Amino acid sequence: MSEEKFDVIVVGGGLAGSTAAYILAEQGLEVLLIERGNYGGSKNMTGGRLYSHSLEKIIPNFAEEAPVERRVVKEAVTMMTENDAVTFNFRSPRLAETGSDSYVVLRGEFDRWLFDKAEEEGAIATSGIKVDELIVENKKVKGVICGGEEMLADVVILADGVNSLLAEKAGLRPRVKPSQVAVGAKEVYELPSKVIEDRFGLEENEGAAWLFAGSPTNGLVGGGFLYTNKQSISIGMVVNLERIGESDKTIEDMMNEFTKHPEVAPLIKDGKLVERSGHVVPEAGLSMVSTLYGDGFLICGDAAGFCLNIGYMVRGMDFAIASGEMAAKAVLKAREKEDFSSATLKIYKDMLDESFVMKDLSLYKKFPSFMDNPRIFNEYPEMLSNIMADMFIVNGNHGIPLRKKAMKHIKSVGLLNLVKDGLRGVKSI
Ligand SMILES: Cc1cc2nc3c(=O)[nH]c(=O)nc-3n(C[C@H](O)[C@H](O)[C@H](O)COP(=O)(O)OP(=O)(O)OC[C@H]3O[C@@H](n4cnc5c(N)ncnc54)[C@H](O)[C@@H]3O)c2cc1C
């Protein structure tokens, strides 16, 4: 067995890992970035939208050089039943202001760009190599083993994504539970830019983000999403892994129904299906965050559980980038002290606690349990669409006051349930 020693080994060339490697290499450290896919991003998937703020701090004006698709200027949230859709729309130039802006991205291209940036800064960025296990001695992580070859480092940064099997195998963190994650399925439909712009009311380079709740997931915890790329549309859904086991439908059935829904089908009409992918996403918020550091190691991005789904917004990529940055900064501090023990690496957790990462996860800590309520995905979309139907349908039948009609639909869900769920909802945000 040959042994090589690096300052830092980063496992995983996703956004968390490549960010950490980029910053450390920029500071002159000898960094080995190891990605199991054929190139950085080849195995990665997202719905589509990156909130720019965390990367903007590290690479100002990154969107001018990075392969971003469109800048989001339009948001939509839809409650759906089998045939109906009630949509809330928001369009504002404020969504596009630097620092508050967000971009639709395709991870294959976007992650590859960041992975290559880390390499340009001097990181040894290797792809097509899987880390099989960590070298741990007396609870201290000393390096990694790939294909029987040992590689040593002062610190190993684990940025290997949601399951982080390496950390689990080494006993550094507990196994992820099915209730804590969702399965994501996504399809990409190619369409000419002009068609996309006309369909969604966009100008060139402008993008739309659209989330759906209710029938897309067959009433289960989760939701649908749609993002406009330059010349394609990303569409998909996430469904809680534990709940999907209780369903009589597969995620494929649900995707078929979702893409054929009368609200959705015209949006992807005549599009050519060019990609299908699946991935797991952390969904349990703060309760999923466990070990973040220890002797000789740090855990960041999805591997640490840093992801937030609050129904109208999904955020994991900005957390991945920010946690990768903080992991890199913690290593730089540890180097100053020449101490890579947990006592020094704890600074990573301190930085996270002071940042939006832990603050936002704490803020929304009650949201995942609020969402685990079938009424949100069944009765409420039904109630809302019935009220809308009563508001808008004129058929010559003589008038019953709208408040009475609405009350009938509200009572079918239960006024008390509505008040109770409303209060829980307000408290969870
Ligand atoms: C369906 C879906 C929709 C989403 N929508 C959004 C969204 O719209 N906005 C948003 O911000 N977030 C979204 N997310 C979440 C977001 O994609 C993740 O939070 C983000 O990808 C986390 O980045 P990461 O770098 O931590 O992990 P990953 O992107 O998973 O990267 C981990 C990397 O580690 C590599 N790896 C794993 N094990 C090994 C090993 N043993 N050896 C070497 N390499 C290894 C993998 O190949 C991979 O490249 C979504 C996720 C899903 C699944």
Structural notes for this entry:
With 429 residues, this protein is of the alpha+beta class. It has helices spanning 15-26, 53-58, 62-65, 107-120, 165-169, 193-200, 241-244, 251-260, 265-268, 317-337, 342-345, 347-354, 356-363, 367-371, 374-377, 379-392, 402-413, 415-428; strands spanning 3-11, 31-35, 49-51, 68-80, 85-91, 102-105, 124-127, 133-137, 140-146, 149-158, 181-190, 206-214, 222-228, 232-240, 272-282, 293-294, 297-299, 308-309, 314-315. Strands 3, 4, 5, 6, 11, 12, 13, 14 and 15 form a 9-stranded mixed β-sheet that branches. Strands 1, 2, 7, 8, 9, 10, 16 and 17 form an 8-stranded mixed β-sheet that branches. The chain is globular and about 85 Å long. The structure holds flavin-adenine dinucleotide.
TL;DR of this structure?
The chain is of the alpha+beta class and 429 residues long.
Q: What is the multimeric organization of the chains shown?
A: single chain
Shape: globular
CATH structural architecture of the largest domain: 3-Layer(bba) Sandwich
Structural category: alpha+beta
Mean pLDDT: 92
Q: Give the total of beta strands.
A: 19
The CATH class of the largest domain turns out to be Alpha Beta
The CATH fourth-level homologous superfamily of the largest domain:
FAD/NAD(P)-binding domain
What is the helical fraction, as a range of percent?
25-40%
How large a portion of the residues is in β-strands, by DSSP E? Answer: 25-35%
Largest sheet: 9 strands, mixed
Radius of gyration: 23 Å
Low-confidence parts: none
